Each structure stands twice: as structure tokens, then as C-alpha cells.
Amino acid sequence: MKNIIFTDTLTNNKVIDAPKPASSFIPEWYKKIESYINGKKMPTDYANNVTVKKCIPVFDAITSGYIITSPCDVYVEQKEGVPFYRWSNFDAITFHPIVQTIGHPASKDGLDSPKFTNPWSIKTPTGYSVLVVSPMHHDLPFAILPGVVDTDTYNSPINFPFKLLDPKWEGLIPVGTPIAQIIPFKRESWSMKLGGEEEINTARYVSLKAHTKFFNNYKSFWWHKKEYK
Predict the structure, then answer these.
(1) Which segments within 89-177 are labelled E, that is strand?
(2) In this structure, are residues 9 and 121 in contact, taking their beta carbons and an 8 Å threshold?
(3) Of 25, 43, 185, 223, which has the fewest CB atoms closer than 10 Å, so is most exposed?
(4) What pTM was computed for the model?
(5) How many structural domains compose the chain?
(6) CATH code of 151's domain
(7) Is residue 227 domain-resident?
(8) What is the rounded distance in angstroms from the CA atom of residue 86 to the CA atom of residue 134?
């Protein structure tokens, strides 16, 4: 098993919560939703009555990698139609001026881009990078701008530029809110090609195999468990 090292460069593990595996931050909506429509595990005329909770790709997205949380409270209020940020500690928010993001879809609101200050440096083994995304399938008022960082060689803390999903939103982003999902991956070189008859036959076989079971076909036949500790 490979190791990923998170180092608190701000408080030396004295104040803020450490990152944790993403499986420690299962969204409340996911916990509460039933696995089967009306709670009944049965086939229907059109397919079966499973909900999104039985979708293994969604589960894998939620639980992949590690979550970094907000080190302190951040409050967002509106002043003359522009979001104004207050924070309780650590210079939690800095900004990218709009001139740095002109042309990027995130600049359509015409506002500077706030950044969550991240106190955690990240170290991965040689040949491994991290994908940084918003916590997937979480109900949050913001989204960070995704990025890839070669954390085997670059170990300075990575801050997280973000945008409010609703520029008019006001409210509290509490300390401990998931702000970034960190997914390590091995760097490899790839080339693309288009499939032919062999790939078509394989795809048809997989489709037929999938339809031999009403429930859990992907999990039963093809899924591989992922571990992040």
C-alpha cells in the first residue's frame, strides 16, 4: 500500500483537524436515501427499482481519496451585490484578481476568485500526482477549481480557488466543512485508439452479462474495491 503524507505547516497538528479518508465524510443525503424505491427490492417493468445509492460509480466517487476541511469558520455576506468574506482565523481566504482568470468560465461573474488557504502540504511517492476536486456529490454552496499537482516533487501547500455556485449566496461555511477531495494517481503515458470488432464484441458480451442479474451486476462481476486509509 502506498503512503500519502499530509503535513500541517500552520499549527503543527495543534489546532486544525487532519485530512481523513473520503469515506469518513459520507454526505448526509446519501446516508438517508433508501437503496430501493419505496424500500422494496424487486424488478419492475422498465428495469429495477434501485436508487442512486446502489450506483457503485457514485459510491467510488464519494469515497475516493482524502478530504481536506476548512480550518476555521468563513462567513459570506453580500455588500452592494458582491460577496464579502469574513473569517475567524488563519487568513483563511485570499484572492486571485479577475485579471488572472479572464477567459476562464469561472470569471463570467466578473469577480475576483477567492481561495481557501490550505495549511496542508501533500507528499506522494515518486511517480504519483494528485487530482484536486470539489468533494464529489456533496451539497456545498461553492465549487473549487479542479487541478492536478505533481506532489512527489512539489510539496508546498496548495490553496484552493473557488466560486460560489450562487453568486448571491449568503451564509456560514463552518470549520470542518469538506472543501477539497485529494485523489492520488500514478502518472503514466497514454495513447488513444479507436476500437474495432474485438472491442465491439467485448462490449456486447459485457452488456449481455450485466442483464443476467436484476441487482448488483456491476459490483458482482467487475467492480474492484479501492482502499484509502
Answers:
(1) 93-96, 113-116, 120-123, 128-133, 142-144, 147-149, 160-164, 171-173
(2) yes
(3) 43
(4) 0.93
(5) 1
(6) 2.70.40.10
(7) no
(8) 21
Cell of 25: 465524510
Q: Which residues pair with 8 in a beta bridge?
A: 120
Residue 212 inside a domain? The answer is no
Distance in angstroms (rounded) separating the CA atoms of residues 116 and 106 = 15
Whether 56 is in a domain gets the answer yes
Distance CA 172, CA 174 (A): 6
3-state SS, residue 58:
helix
Contacts for 197 with CB less than 8 Å, ≥ 6 apart: none
Count each helix (H run) and each strand (E run) in the chain, helices first: 4, 14
- Whether the Cβ atoms of residue 217 and residue 210 lie closer than 8 Å to each other: yes
Q: 110 with 98: CB under 8 angstroms?
A: yes
Are residues 192 and 211 in contact, defined by beta-carbon separation less than 8 angstroms?
no
Domain boundaries, position 104: 5-186
pLDDT digits (tens, 9 = 90+) for 38-82: 888 888 766 678 899 999 999 999 999 999 999 999 999 999 889
